[in-house]
């Protein structure tokens, strides 16, 4: 992975770098560096992955947190999302910061694509073109998933989308149109279909930081899961793991991980050498140092209701193998992240925190396929996938004691509908696996799950299935580009 200094020296577009007070898309591109070789374009594409972190606000909005009154860290980036208020601020870990960084990444993708076209779009640039298309699709996908309504085939043609930017900026104050969610999804799918066949894993020095073939199909599986095209979820999952060898690529929670200290786990969880990590991104964030101390964080009751244990029973019927620690016996957590602190200068005491984030993992692909099978009525196949997952998440796993069956899941969820029960089991496994990683929020959106947040003073706040606050508000600066705000 290239250093920050090298990234900045090769980056030819600054029009989307808006971490300061600059307005949305209001700068002209910087043409200091000529992109005239595959190597230079590859350097540029290092910056085509969002450098911002979504976990802080996505976790705080979800049902993974509660009011841990007594924890001292009270910040608006944690408090505003907990009450589903529009988050104030533009700095790291805010929705505005994430929006800006996604469009910065899109700018790099588009600059690379334009350079490739000007150079004749030959086979020497195929791999770079594939990566540029996938990175452009990914940033737009994350934006539309957070700042627009979740895809619904009955309303997608009218729901407000986000600007899908297809070319580098040439002018200041260009007008943008949000169009619709359906349009954005069409463009994402187009980029996916064109980009995936062009990816060449051999083009990467450190594949874990780039869209490899496997990571690209993992992205496609998530995209089609959100779209509700379940057969394509299965198709892409099977291409990602053609031998169905998920077990060999999953995190070793029942063995190696179980032996690690909190510090060792945090250092190893996001390593590029961890086979579970299909794609990693370096993000500017304080999440690794602050998440355990936030007032609105994960309690004993929540962590064990999800993982099982400590008197609580989950659908498996036993405690899962995740390592759990606590702070002040109030905030309970799995130590997944380690901060990389970069000083502003050699002798400075200030600087920025960076956190590596797994954007796609083996476990997500497997659980996405399980859910897709269930949605298509393939109950046996869905349960096989879920039991593959469970077998790697229970110490001393016993098929007779721990395997999920139709009868077991129906009984646990109190329904006679096997499909409903299996989907709920898949969602619970996803919630456990991605605790503290933000992805639970997407499942809440996709399945319109209500969320209840309580306060230490006895107040109850409910986010209903149709609450407009489920959609993040676009940054106010985007109004200067002619964009319509989300309704409230």
TrEMBL record:
The keyword rRNA processing does not apply. Residues 309-450 form the RagB/SusD domain. Pfam families: SusD-like_3, SusD_RagB. It is found in: Cell outer membrane. Residues 24-225 form the SusD-like N-terminal domain. Keywords: Cell outer membrane, Membrane, Signal. This is RagB/SusD family nutrient uptake outer membrane protein. It comes from Belliella marina.
């Amino acid at each position: 992975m290239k250093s920050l200094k090298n990234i900045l020296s090769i980056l030819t577009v600054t029009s989307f770098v808006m971490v300061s007070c600059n307005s949305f898309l209001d700068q002209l591109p910087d043409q200091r560096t000529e992109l005239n070789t595959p190597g230079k374009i590859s350097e540029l594409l290092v910056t085509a992955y969002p450098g911002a972190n979504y976990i802080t606000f996505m976790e705080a909005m979800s049902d993974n947190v509660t009011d841990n009154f007594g924890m001292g860290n009270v910040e608006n980036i944690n408090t505003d999302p907990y009450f589903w208020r529009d988050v104030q601020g533009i700095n790291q870990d805010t929705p505005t910061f994430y929006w800006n960084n996604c469009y910065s990444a899109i700018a790099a993708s588009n600059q690379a694509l334009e350079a490739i076209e000007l150079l004749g779009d030959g086979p020497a640039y195929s791999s770079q073109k594939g990566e540029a298309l996938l990175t452009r699709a990914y940033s737009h996908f994350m934006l539309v998933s957070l700042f627009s309504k979740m895809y619904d085939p009955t309303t997608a043609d009218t729901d407000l989308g986000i600007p899908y930017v297809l070319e580098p900026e040439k002018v200041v104050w260009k007008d943008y149109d949000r169009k619709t969610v359906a349009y954005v999804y069409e463009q994402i799918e187009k980029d996916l279909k064109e980009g995936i066949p062009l990816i060449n894993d051999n083009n990467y020095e450190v594949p874990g930081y780039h869209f490899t073939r496997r990571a690209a199909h993992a992205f496609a599986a998530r995209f089609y899961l959100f779209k509700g095209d379940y057969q394509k979820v299965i198709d892409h999952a099977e291409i990602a793991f053609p031998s169905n060898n998920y077990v060999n690529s999953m995190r070793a929670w029942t063995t190696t991980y179980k032996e690690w200290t909190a510090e060792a786990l945090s250092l190893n969880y996001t390593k590029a050498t961890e086979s579970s990590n299909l794609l990693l991104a370096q993000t500017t964030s304080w999440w690794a140092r602050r998440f355990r101390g936030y007032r609105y964080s994960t309690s004993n009751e929540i962590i064990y209701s999800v993982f099982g244990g400590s008197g609580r029973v989950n659908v498996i019927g036993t405690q899962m193998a995740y390592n759990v620690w606590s702070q002040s016996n109030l905030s309970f957590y799995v130590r997944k992240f380690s901060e990389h602190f970069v000083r502003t200068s050699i002798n400075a005491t200030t600087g920025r925190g960076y956190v590596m984030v797994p954007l796609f993992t083996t476990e997500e692909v497997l659980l996405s396929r399980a859910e897709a099978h269930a949605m298509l009525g393939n109950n046996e196949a869905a349960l096989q996938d879920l039991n593959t997952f469970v077998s790697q998440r229970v110490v001393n796993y016993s098929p007779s004691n721990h395997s999920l069956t139709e009868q077991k899941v129906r009984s646990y969820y109190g329904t006679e509908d096997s499909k409903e029960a299996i989907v709920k089991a898949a969602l619970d496994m996803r919630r456990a696996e991605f605790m503290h990683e933000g992805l639970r929020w997407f499942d809440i959106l996709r399945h319109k799950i209500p969320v209840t947040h309580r306060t230490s003073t006895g107040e109850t706040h409910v986010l209903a299935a149709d609450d407009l606050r489920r959609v993040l508000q676009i940054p106010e600066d985007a109004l200067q580009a002619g964009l319509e705000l989300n309704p409230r």
